[in-house]
Amino acid sequence: MGLKKEFLLLIILALSFLLLLTVEGKVHYHDFVLKDKNFTRLCSTKSALVVNESLPGPVLYVNKGDTVFVNVHNQGGFKVTIHWHGVKQPRNPWSDGPEYVTQCAIQPGTNFTQEVIFSDEEGTLWWHAHSHWTRNTVHGAIVIYPEEGKSYPYPKPDAEEILVLGSWYTYDVNLVVEQDLRTGADLPVSDAYTINSQPGDFCACSNESTYRWQVDSGKTYLLRIVNAIMNAEVFLAIAEHNLTIVGMDAAYLKPFVTSYIMIGPGQTMDILVTTNQSVGRYYIAARQFYTDKAIFTEYDKTNVTAILEYSGNYTLPQASPSFPYTTLPSYTDYHAGISFRNKLRSL
Length: 347
Prior knowledge:
Blueprint: H1 2-23, E1 27-41, E2 44-51, E3 60-63, E4 67-74, E5 82-85, E6 111-117, E7 123-129, E8 139-145, E9 159-168, H2 173-183, E10 192-195, E11 212-215, E12 220-227, E13 234-238, E14 243-248, E15 251-258, E16 261-263, E17 268-274, E18 281-288, H3 293-296, E19 304-310, H4 334-341
Parallel strand pairs: 1-4, 3-8, 9-12, 11-19
Antiparallel strand pairs: 1-2, 4-6, 5-7, 7-8, 9-10, 12-17, 13-16, 13-18, 14-15, 14-17, 18-19
Keywords: Apoplast, Copper, Lignin degradation, Oxidoreductase, Repeat, Secreted, Signal
GO biological process, one term: lignin catabolic process
Signal peptide: 1-25
């Protein structure tokens, strides 16, 4: 009887091992090369630290349960680490990125390979530098698809798009932050907000480079939004288009329809957008949400914009894209912020 029990136990262990092998995710390898590059925004040019010469940086595409090894080559002038924002990293804190908390900084002229273990995350997250304010330009999106063979808990979209909200400073923000920390001054306010690194039509010297999202009529798109702005909540709306919120921070939500979103710093959001309006051009507009009106009165109230542009040959009824005047909340609309937050429910 004892031999039979031992034999059955061995069979169970063997089957369990085979099951683990079948559900184990794939392994991916990437190189992140950090170096300084010149960018021209708001009528001036400055050098900024970026990854692989792009802003935002490269997107990491994985499936749920995958593992990624990222070899970070620091060829810039600042010591850095890379943090995988929202990734749980089970039993792997030494690759999580907080400088001098879980790992040492990667010094200029050196490299270090970080292991990123995805467990139950599914949706959109992001990565960013975790040293001083280098994350202002060292950041990018992470797209986590369902496990192979599985689907979304909502109808599969026809295509998808990533919009990264960011901040732009016309000076070296890291030097200013160091000075402010020494003197106790307020941390600097950016000169503009950006969508995929572009300030948009309402900022100086920017309308030729405004980001454009090309869409086809009658399709449903999964819009992945990352708020990489330095410490600011924002409202965002698309003129004449409803937004169906389906996920936030790599977790699914009970879907709900809204005309705008409010997204906090460091948050990500997954949104279904159906292109069911007349062909044309529509502004995607965002503005900061302020609860302190005293601060608000001193802030530059310029909206950051991108353009949703229907494909095809057509004559535009107006020169400028439609703007979400009636759906984008004002800067201090506290009730709009609370109303949106109250609709968020886990699936």
